[in-house]
Each structure stands twice: as C-alpha cells, then as structure tokens.
C-alpha cells in the first residue's frame, strides 16, 4: 500500500509484510500428522473395546469344553499324525508332482508354434481352472471307473487323490510356468542359438531353469493351496487308514460328540502351511534383493 516517504515527502509503494503461511492444519487446528495419530488411536481403541466385550460376554467354559477339550485332544494322538497328517502330506506331494510335470508340458504346448498344441493347452487351462475342484474329484472317483471298466488308478486312494489334485494343479501351474518362461529375456535364447544349441536344448538347459527360479514363490503358494484342497479326498470313499486330516477330524468329532478333533486337525494343517508360507515369503524377498 502507499505510504508517505519520510525523507522526501513523496509517496512510495510499500509492500505489506507477507503473513506467515498456515501450516497443514485442518479443522480444529490439528495438523495432518496429528489427525492421523488421533484416527489411529480411535481405531485401536475401538478394536480394544470389541476385544474386551467379546472376552467379557463369551462363555469360555463352554468354548473350552467343546473346542479345546484336553482329554479329547490327547486321545487323537498319535493317530492324527501317523494317519491324518501323513496322508495329507502324501496326497499333496503326489498331486503337486503330477501338477508340476503336467504344468510344464502344458506350458510348453501353450507356447508352441504348432496350433493344435496351443489349442489343446488353452482349452485344458480354461476348463480345469474354471471347474470346481469337487467336480474333478467326483470325475476321478466315479467317472474314470465308469469310462474305463475294470481299470483302477495306480496307488489306490493316494493315486486317485493325486490325480484329481494334479489335474487341477496342472492348469494353474501351466500358467505360472508359462509366465516364468516369458519373463526370461529373449536374449538368453538368442545367445544359446548363436552358440549352436538347438531350440529344445536351449529351452532345457538355459530358459527353463531360469524360469523355475523366477516362479519358485508362486509354486510354493500353489503347494499350500493343494495341501488345503486335499480335504476333498473324503469324496473318494476312502478307508479309515486312508483318511486325511479333515476326514479324520470329522469322524472323531462325530464319535466324541465334540468339536475339538476338528480344531486339532486345523492346527495340524497349520504345521504344514505356515512353514510353506514363510518359505514362499523368504524366497520372494531373496528375489527382490537379487534384482
């Protein structure tokens, strides 16, 4: 604004001193950081209140008797380990082995320059990824004996369970492996071919090993999913010695009239899945560090 010049009696333009900028304060004069702290404090308080209310009003006596009965839990051992956990691990391992081998073949067919191979791989992947796994188990347990009378899947229940899990895993692992192969730089194949390697030799010796290193974490995650999906083996009509964890827990829960066996079976699943999940995260972290 204009102010008189004390020295010359004239007027000169004097710029008013700029007012200090308002900080990032919002309503109530709180800064953004403070509002965030207040919001988080409110969320933590609400969560703590819910936990306290649940703990205060829950009937812990009935929960303990029906879900954590120590006497019932002790009666499950060692059979739940030697039968349920062992069979779950066997079914999962067989299914993953079939899925890994089949997934590699289907992935290579999906990338093939031969149209019928690509068509077959595409149809297989879309069909078996779209079907519920329960239908695949029913098909293996009922459809295969009807379609091929007098034939049995080798390995009994383990063979049937592994085949059903493997058919589904093949479709998922094929897409995972295909993505890994496509993630390998094209220069790797070009360099191998320039050295005189044939295409199959270059794929087998150069590309596929690198692709598997890339897809190890998602392969581990698929192994965890197969472990949980093995619970559908009960639809194959297995015997007492062929029961996996879910079937074992359900049978004992019915015999005891108590839910504790199912809870113990769930804990046994965690003994498998948690280490595998930790392994997958560790492998992912190592890959990020390598990049």
UniProtKB/TrEMBL annotation:
Cellular localization per UniProt: Cell membrane
InterPro entries (UniProt xref): AA_ABC_transptr_permease_3TM, ArtM/GltK/GlnP/TcyL/YhdX-like, MetI-like, MetI-like_sf
Primary residence: membrane
Record field: transmembrane: 40-58, 89-109, 130-148, 260-280
Highest taxon of the lineage: Bacteria
Protein's membrane topology: Multi-pass membrane protein
ABC transmembrane type-1 domain boundaries: 85-280
Region listing for Disordered, in residue ranges: 1-30
CDD domains linked to this entry: TM_PBP2
Keyword annotations of the record: Amino-acid transport, Cell membrane, Membrane, Transmembrane, Transmembrane helix, Transport
NCBIfam families for the chain: HEQRo_perm_3TM
Name of the protein: Amino acid ABC transporter permease
């Amino acid at each position: 604004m204009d102010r008189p010049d004390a020295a010359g009696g004239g007027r000169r333009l004097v710029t008013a001193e700029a007012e200090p900028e308002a900080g990032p304060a919002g309503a109530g004069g709180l800064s953004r950081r403070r509002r965030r702290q207040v919001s988080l404090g409110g969320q933590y308080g609400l969560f703590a209140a819910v936990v306290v209310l649940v703990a205060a009003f829950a009937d812990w006596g009935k929960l303990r008797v029906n879900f954590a009965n120590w006497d019932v839990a002790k009666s499950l051992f060692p059979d739940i380990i030697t039968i349920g956990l062992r069979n779950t691990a066997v079914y999962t391992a067989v299914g993953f082995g079939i899925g890994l081998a089949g997934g590699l073949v289907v992935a290579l067919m999906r990338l093939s320059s031969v149209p019928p191979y690509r068509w077959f791989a595409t149809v297989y992947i879309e069909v078996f990824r779209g079907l519920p796994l329960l239908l695949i188990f029913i098909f293996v347990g009922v459809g295969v004996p009807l379609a091929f009378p007098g034939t049995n899947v080798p390995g009994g229940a383990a063979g049937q369970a592994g085949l059903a899990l493997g058919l589904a895993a093949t479709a998922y692992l094929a897409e995972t492996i295909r993505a890994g192969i496509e993630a390998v730089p094209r220069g790797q194949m070009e360099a191998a071919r320039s050295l005189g390697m044939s295409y199959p030799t270059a794929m087998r010796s150069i590309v596929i090993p690198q692709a598997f290193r890339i897809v190890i974490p998602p392969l581990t995650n698929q192994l965890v999913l197969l472990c949980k999906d093995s619970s559908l083996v009960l639809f194959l009509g297995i015997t007492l010695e062929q029961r996996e964890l879910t079937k074992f827990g359900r049978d004992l829960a019915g015999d005891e009239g108590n839910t504790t066996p199912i809870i113990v079976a769930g804990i046994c699943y965690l003994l498998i899945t948690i280490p595998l999940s930790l392994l997958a995260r560790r492998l992912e972290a190592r890959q990020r560090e390598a990049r």
